[in-house]
Known about the structure:
The complex is a heterodimer.
Chain A (H helix, E strand, L loop, with lengths): L2 E5 L2 E5 L7 H8 L18 E4 L2 E4 L12 E3 L8 H12 L9 H14 L5 H8 L9 H14 L2 H6 L1
Parallel strand pairs in A: 1-5
Antiparallel strand pairs in A: 1-2, 3-4, 3-5
Helix pairs in contact in A: 2-3, 2-5
Chain B lengths: L13 H10 L22 E2 L5 E4 L4 E5 L8 H13 L6 E5 L4 H4 L14 H28 L6 E4 L2 E4 L4 E4 H9 L27 H5 L15 E7 L6 E6 L1 H4 L4 E6 L3 E6 L2 H10 L1 E5 L8 H11 L5 E6 L2 H6 L3 E9 L11 E7 L2 E6 L4 H12 L6 E5 L13 H10 L6 E4 L2 H6 L2 E2 L3 E9 L5 E10 L2 H5 L24 E8 L6 E2 L5 H20 L4 H8 L4 H14 L9 E9 L5 E10 L5 E11 L6 H20 L5 E2 L2 E2 L17 E6 L12 H18 L13
Parallel strand pairs in B: 3-4, 8-18, 16-17, 19-23, 21-22, 26-29
Antiparallel strand pairs in B: 1-2, 2-3, 5-6, 6-7, 8-11, 9-12, 10-11, 13-22, 14-20, 15-16, 15-18, 20-21, 24-25, 25-26, 27-28
Helix pairs in contact in B: 2-4, 4-5, 11-12, 15-19, 18-19
The structure holds FE2/S2 (inorganic) cluster (2 copies).
Amino acid sequence: MPYRLTINGETREVDADGDTPLLWALRDILGMTGTKFGCGAGLCGCCTVHVDGVATRACQTPIDSVGTAGIVTVEGVDRTDAGRRVQQAWIDLEVVQCGYCQPGQIMSAAALLAGNPEPSDAEIDEAMSGNLCRCGTYSRIRDAIRRAARLAKPAMETAQ
Amino acid sequence: MTTPAARRGHGPSRRAVLSAGIAVGGGLLVGVPLAAPVLSKDGPAGFAPNAFVRIARNGTVTLTMPYVEMGQGTYTAVPMLIAEELEVPLAAVTLEHAPADDMLYRNPIMGAQETDGSLSMRAAWEPMRRAGATARTMLVAAAAAEWRVDAAECRAAEGFVVHDRTRRRIAYGDLAERAATLPVPQQVTLKDASAFTLIGRPQKRLDSADKINGTAIFGMDVRLPGMKIAAVMASPVLGGRIASLDDREARRVTGVREIIRLDDAVAVVADHWAAAKKALDTLAVTWDDGPNAGFSTARLKGELDAASQRDGVVGDEAGDEAGAFAGAARRAEAIYRLPLLAHAAMEPLNCTVHLHGGRCDVWVGTQAASRAQAAAAAAAGLPQDLVAIHNQYLGGSFGRRAETDNIVQAVSIARRLDHPVKVVWSREEDTQHDFYRPAYHNTLRAGLDRDGRVTSWFHRVVGPSPLARWLPPAVQNGLDPDAVTSATGPYQFPNRHVDYVRHEEHAFRSGFWRGVGTTHNVFVVESFIDELAMASGTDPLEFRRRHLRDDPRLRAVLDLAAEKSGWSKPLPPGSGRGISLLQDFGGTILAQVAEVSVEDSGSLRVDRVTAVVDCGKLVNPDTVIAQIQGGVIFGLSAALYGQITFSEGRVEQGNFDSYAAVRMNEAPRVAVHLIESGAMPFGVGESGTSGIAPAVANAVYAAIGKRIRQLPITSDM
Ligand code: FES
Ligand code: FES
């Protein structure tokens, strides 16, 4: 019996063992390679997706645990307001270097802002410290999250 | 926004590039006698005055990019050079990864097709602008001929040739065919720097858009029809062999297709990596560990210590070091030790191979495409020209993706299969089978006179020579120039002796790591200089200033660092500032000031880093800032936590829990200040990494009086 997953608003079927991590269902079975593999152990955050809006490590999420929850990946994050603002801020502040960790960073940041429109520095640290970046883009990520938060305000919107 | 078009291997075929070469009688790189129309993937015939630039009839400008993008921004900075001279908007340039070809695409400084040594910008600066200017000159000549006017009356702007007097203009695309029939000029005039409209002005990275929406394709993301995925486990001890293998349980895992036993590794090929890895973990393997079974970090340390008693090959000598030391008013001696380091790029190693019809196709992110091609050819038993390397985005590399072991392994696996296979290493496999930054032993001694001036300097470096493996002719008479680079820092000492004792280990492989020899020696030199400053009771910044080589650029960097860091402002107890200064072999000068606080518990926090950099001419200033910021964080991870240790021949670290890296909550703000000097751009990919460890170690001394002589810092506190 294939598993039926709701990914970026579409129903997709995955025919694999129930303990298959969502990460590999996405990447190798469904061909959605935006979600990255970095450690396979919940230590790097490269594989972060949203499961019912919550930032979740796909490498630690067996497909049989997802049920009917809605999954959003980096390929679909621009359908959310927070996701769009985060992506815009990432471009505005030139966050990206090699880019390999960035899908995961963006998913963590978008989930943070969706739940907490004006996070403090400590809250940013808390939400983002599970996402490693070996290229060291942290200070730009922090600035971009603050900028994305400001982009939400109507005053900024007219100023754009 | 342009996107690199070479994803999924749609780069220009090797044949297309070469056929242009054949049509013009070879020698495309420089001094090309004739341009020839080539068929481009844009459909219509175009104009390709050299191996780098192609202009299609529809106006598309394509740059065949010999340097790879691994985060350093070269996919933006190199197109800027072309666009500047060609007079097209930056966004009009489309990139393709170059195929493997040393003849056409070698880095002129390294003499091979490599992206390393922070050399791309230095290497590209002249040839890429010349490539753009050549194309521009020919397009202008084509328009002038069309209009029957003097070329001097025409100018190029925004992708058009313009004749102001008659207010006419023609788009480049419409000129491409005519330009292709013209002789390639031997002499072209490059723009004066004052006329630059792109170079030196911040430009948005061209690769960002694809990297924030998941569409950028890294080696890890390559997908081919019929492709299967493999997980591998190599012998945990280098040189070990499989003694026995029980794969009965593994074969029962859903999705498993093949289990392939190599001499020194076993691979499980499956429908997806989760199945492959699950099966791999059930394998019962016994290894014959071979001669390295007893190797340990303690043994390594003992051997390096013993080797340090030998005299080395002299790398730098002046005056009478021994005499000056003996007669010095004050003497200092110290031993500094550096650990093995893994690269731990964010993207674990992987390689996709398809052997079919007597050919071999390889999809991989590599810093050295031509080496990758040669290695794959040898492993496949094919001539090199039947192997195509499809280079991909690199999810970090830091030196690791210059090696070809994963490519050889993937080809060996693919030889046993009749379909494409992507071999993906686990994080643990990546950490445990690296080419490690060598461990080094350093013996230092210096003499000071009564006024606190250094009168003698001795530095002995002991360690292996990755360079001797990589580029044998670079090591002459036993001297590895990389091992002793920066071994006296940017200073002038009247009596000095630097030597190198080569000590090779066979229980692990060593290789290049971001910053190479500079990263290692800057920690040693900048820490020892700090010791000497303290011994003479002089402010460390002032002490450095007094000993600098006579170079106003060095002084300017140091002085600005003092100003921007608030060097003389007092800090609360338990906090301290430390400085480092370096000039790396690329020419870049960098000073860093780190501010740290040490809590009573002993836990260390790096609060702030101020960096001042002079990298000559700035091409894309914001990328320079980003490279320094990122380099500092990369170096800080190593300074605080980085060490690979061995026990019973095996690496003891595996994932990011045991090989830790700095996370956002530990990342200091890095303020970067740029000084623009000189006409040439120097590289900045490595400098930030090299200077951070001593700045932090010196700050720890300033904070709590503890001198760090061994990395990582947390192992010596
Ligand atoms: S791959 Fe999932 S946390 Fe690293
Ligand atoms: S951008 Fe390279 S790992 Fe984050």
